[in-house]
Design a protein that fits this description.
The chain has helices spanning about 5-15, 45-55, 65-75, 90-100, 125-130, 150-160, 215-230, 245-255, 300-310, 425-440, 445-450; strands at about 20-25, 85, 100-105, 105-110, 115-120, 135-140, 145, 165-170, 180-185, 185-190, 195-200, 205-210, 235, 245, 260-265, 275, 290-295, 315-320, 325-330, 340-345, 365. The chain has about 450 residues and is of the alpha/beta class. The chain has two domains: about 1-100 and about 190-450, Alpha-Beta Complex (2-enoyl-CoA Hydratase, Chain A, domain 1); about 100-190, PDZ domain (Pdz3 Domain), CATH 2.30.42.10. The strands form five sheets. Strands 1, 2, 14, 15, 16, 19 and 20 form a seven-stranded mixed β-sheet that branches. Strands 11-12-13-17-18-21 form a six-stranded mixed β-sheet, sandwiched between helices. Strands 7-6-8-9 form a four-stranded antiparallel β-sheet, with helices on one face. Helix 8 (about 245-255) runs parallel beside helix 9. It is globular and about 85 Å long. The two termini are about 40 Å apart.
Length: about 450
């Protein structure tokens, strides 16, 4: 289906950092450093005994830090799907991702058929300037040979580095008889999380790709630009947005709501509840807003969509969202590593928990069907092996069933597919145009039509 291919690539990119979700950095009463010195857990004695036995008797020399890291990972793997241990390099990459700025080449990459493939170069970056193209296969990064075991994290770490340093990529391109060897100078890469344009006269469009530190600021600039274009309605596109910072979700939401309106509340296991309230009023007035969502819209995206839906500030259009209603707190550790720990659940202004259920669109519009690889199921929170439960009883009529993937052509070459029409965006524009027509009609005519 339309956007499913893009969504899969988005999920590949998410693999670099995990599903972003809703992230809080060392907050909510957890500001002190994590310490086990006074906890006195008796079971830690067993762990110490095993570690001592391995160091003393294992047939080969062991790396104690590697053993400890492995044990921590295993411990967190017994919790929900979004709690995890992050070694220093992974934690550093996650921080870079939320800032949206790093030293590198400007390449979006993914794993396809066990090969490291270029999804797209980012415009005006070193990668784009030397002519790297979507579909190019990365064979080497400097002297590092890319193999089937190479992960996205491995590749990202090799390509990123200080501005001004050189890196050489060896690439395979179908149209070239020999491998391409391209040397680039790393530069500061800034990932735009906000994109905007005019779709038709009077209809603005804003696409949020994730919730970073500067997303709210960039959104404000985009709104100013669109207002200067005299828009009378707006499409807010949250499709395939995996989430990000909770503070960013709050700052984005209040640009569409009125001061004093509740955006989201979060509750921890001890019953403590924090409310996030809009501290300012939107500059958009009462212009109609369509919010586009799909199964790739998760967590922070669902906070924004849920707030606009509950306050009847926007009409939510598309398909059921991912359904991630939990908050993760990042707890830095003394050696530069960190723990991502699920510490709370969040609730929309009306008190809904979307955990496992997601946001049900006001108007369900499925993307246009295209030929796809067979058996590519839609992934949502409720499909994860260790998902949290929803203590509220969901209304089954508000859960959008996942469409069957059976009977699709498995032999189709996805690279040769033409980009199909964006049915969801087209329908959103049609709705806004109809909205404007009825708004401008003579009230007497509207009354006569009832």
């Amino acid at each position: 289906m339309l956007f499913k291919k893009k969504m899969r690539l988005a999920f590949l990119l998410m693999a670099m950092f995990g599903f972003l979700g809703v992230i809080v950095f060392v907050g909510r009463g957890l500001e002190t450093k994590v310490s086990a010195e006074t906890d006195g857990y008796k079971d830690l004695k067993i762990f110490s005994e095993v570690l001592a036995a391995l160091n003393k008797s294992y047939v080969e020399t062991v790396d104690t830090k590697e053993l400890v890291y492995g044990a921590i990972k295993g411990m967190l793997n017994t919790l929900d799907a979004h709690s995890a241990f992050m070694p220093p390099e992974v934690y550093k990459e996650m921080q870079v991702d939320t800032r949206g700025e790093f030293g590198g080449l400007g390449l979006q990459i993914g794993i396809r058929d066990k090969k490291l493939v270029v999804v797209a170069p980012i415009a005006d970056t070193p990668a784009a300037k030397v002519g790297i193209k979507p579909g190019d296969i990365v064979l080497k990064v400097d002297d590092y040979m890319v193999t089937e075991e190479t992960t996205l994290m491995d590749a990202v770490q090799k390509m990123r580095g200080k501005k001004g340093t050189a890196v050489t990529l060896t690439l395979f391109r179908k149209s070239e008889p020999e491998s391409l060897v391209l040397t680039m100078i790393r530069d500061v890469i800034r990932i735009k999380s906000v994109k905007s344009r005019i779709l038709e006269p009077g209809i603005g469009y804003i696409h949020l790709t994730q919730f970073q530190e500067h997303t709210a600021r960039d959104l404000s600039r985009s709104i100013t630009k669109l207002l200067n274009e005299n828009i009378h309605s707006l499409v807010l596109d949250l499709r395939n947005n995996p989430g990000g910072l909770l503070t960013s979700a709050k700052e984005v939401s209040e640009q569409f709501l009125e001061s004093g309106q509740l955006i989201v509340s979060i509750k921890s296991r001890d019953g403590k509840e924090d409310e996030f309230i809009a501290s300012r009023s939107s500059r958009l007035g009462k212009i109609p807003i369509i919010v586009l969502v799909n199964e790739g819209s998760a967590s922070a995206s669902e906070i924004v969509a849920g707030a606009l839906q509950d306050w009847k500030r926007g009409v939510v259009v598309g398909t059921q969202t991912f359904g991630k209603g939990s908050v993760q707190t990042i707890l830095p550790l003394s050696d530069g590593s960190a723990v991502r720990l699920t510490t709370a659940k969040y609730y929309t202004p009306s008190g809904r928990s979307i955990q496992n259920t997601g946001i049900a669109p006001d108007i369900i519009i499925r993307p246009e069907a295209v030929k796809e690889v067979k058996n590519s199921p839609i992934l949502r929170e409720r499909d994860l092996a260790r998902h949290l439960s929803n203590e509220l009883t969901p209304d089954p009529d508000r859960i959008d069933p996942v469409p069957s993937q059976e009977g699709e052509d498995a032999s189709v070459d996805r690279e040769s597919l033409e980009t199909p029409v964006d049915t969801q965006l087209k329908k959103a524009v049609d709705l806004l145009k109809g909205w404007q027509i009825f708004k401008e009609m003579d009230p007497a005519v509207i009354s006569a039509q009832k």
